[in-house]
């Protein structure tokens, strides 16, 4: 993504804080609104990339410094594709999304507010989308995020009432539970939904939660160790409320990790925005797809962290728990995104 001089200061702080990940930018129908614009954040704070581990902290609502409103609110039409970018460093230099070891689920929450400047904590939050772990492809949501250059997207439902909202993408990293609690990475975008119905927001009480408070330190969702060497008891069950599905809204199961410039399919069939909350079937290539084994270097070490390829670790994905295919971006998996175009045949199976 484009380097912003305003964000350059964050890079100068690299000596005082280790980068983990930060929510940096929103895109409306593929168009950047500008780094940091309409976000409750501050890229001059040295801990902005650090995780939140106190689940009762007000920072759980909109992240570190999230109590301070953004000066701008971005207009988004109902039915538009709203995308969020996560970066390793706010400046985008050095590049990256989040450390590859930080495996875990993701979700996107929303809260309608009288004013986008109001305190974000408390009741009224509901979930638009979630993705946990896909047992079929051995893939966590964070791995999908990294493979998609840090971009995750959601459709703002056409039936979502007009008004001002806080939109909150969330990453939960579960890789370090042997040494400490789950790590949350989140933030809030201030948006004004335009063109939606004029009536009140109608979300059932059981789909509404308070943040902080919607998840507890004792919940199974934050006590599932995602470290590759940990003993796991699947399925992984996501925490928080069920996803609220607005009636009459056409959603696409492919939109979350689709290319940034990919449009919301106009003819997509209604489907849940929730994906992989428990064990589900992964996307698979067409029946005519054929695996290619001929170019695989079988003398390479098998990836233990999901990385692969010439420009990354040099590991092979063949027999890896993450999947047998090495994507063009250097990540192991088994879906078409990993096994299709750009797949690195020397480091795993490719299908065409």
Automatic annotation (TrEMBL):
It is found in: Secreted. Its EC number is 1.14.99.56. Disulfide bonds join 325-339. The keyword Signal applies. Belongs to the polysaccharide monooxygenase AA9 family. Residues 305-352 form the Chitin-binding type-1 domain. Its cofactor is Cu(2+). It comes from Xylaria grammica. Keywords: Carbohydrate metabolism, Cellulose degradation, Chitin-binding, Disulfide bond, Polysaccharide degradation, Secreted, Signal. Residues 1-19 form the signal peptide. GO terms for cellular component: extracellular region. This is lytic cellulose monooxygenase (C4-dehydrogenating). Its main location: secreted. Pfam families: AA9, Chitin_bind_1. It comes from the Eukaryota. GO terms for biological process: cellulose catabolic process. It is an enzyme of class 1 (oxidoreductase).
């Amino acid at each position: 993504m484009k380097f912003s001089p305003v964000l350059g200061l964050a890079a100068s702080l690299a000596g005082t804080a280790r980068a983990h990940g930060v929510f940096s930018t929103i895109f409306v129908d593929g168009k950047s609104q500008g780094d940091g614009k309409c976000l409750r954040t501050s890229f001059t704070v040295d801990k902005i990339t650090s995780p939140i581990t106190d689940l009762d902290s007000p920072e759980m609502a909109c992240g570190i410094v999230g109590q301070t409103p953004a000066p701008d609110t971005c207009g988004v039409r109902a039915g538009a594709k709203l995308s969020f970018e996560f970066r390793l460093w706010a400046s985008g230099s050095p590049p990256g999304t989040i450390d590859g070891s930080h495996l875990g689920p993701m979700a996107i929450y929303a809260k309608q507010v009288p004013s986008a400047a109001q305190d974000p904590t408390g009741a009224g939050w509901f979930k638009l989308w979630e993705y946990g772990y896909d047992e079929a492809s051995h893939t966590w949501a964070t791995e999908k995020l990294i493979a998609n250059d840090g971009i995750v997207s959601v459709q703002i439902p056409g039936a979502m009432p007009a008004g001002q909202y806080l939109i909150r993408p969330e990453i939960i990293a579960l890789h370090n539970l042997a040494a400490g609690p789950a790590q949350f990475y989140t933030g809030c975008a201030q948006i004004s939904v335009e063109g939606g119905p004029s009536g009140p927001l109608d979300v059932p009480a059981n789909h509404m939660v308070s943040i902080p408070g919607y998840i507890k330190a004792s919940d199974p969702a934050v006590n599932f160790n995602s470290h590759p060497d940990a003993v796991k008891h699947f399925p992984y069950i996501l925490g928080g409320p069920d996803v609220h599905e607005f009636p009459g809204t056409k959603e696409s199961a492919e939109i979350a990790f689709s290319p940034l410039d990919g449009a919301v399919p106009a003819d997509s069939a209604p489907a849940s925005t929730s994906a992989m909350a428990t064990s589900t079937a992964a996307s698979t290539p067409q029946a005519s797809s054929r695996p290619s084994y001929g170019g695989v270097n079988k003398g390479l070490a098998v990836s233990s962290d999901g990385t692969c390829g010439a420009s990354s670790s040099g590991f092979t994905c063949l027999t890896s728990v993450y999947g047998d295919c090495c994507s063009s971006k250097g990540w192991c998996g088994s879906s078409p995104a990993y096994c299709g175009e750009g797949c690195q045949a020397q480091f795993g199976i490719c299908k065409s």
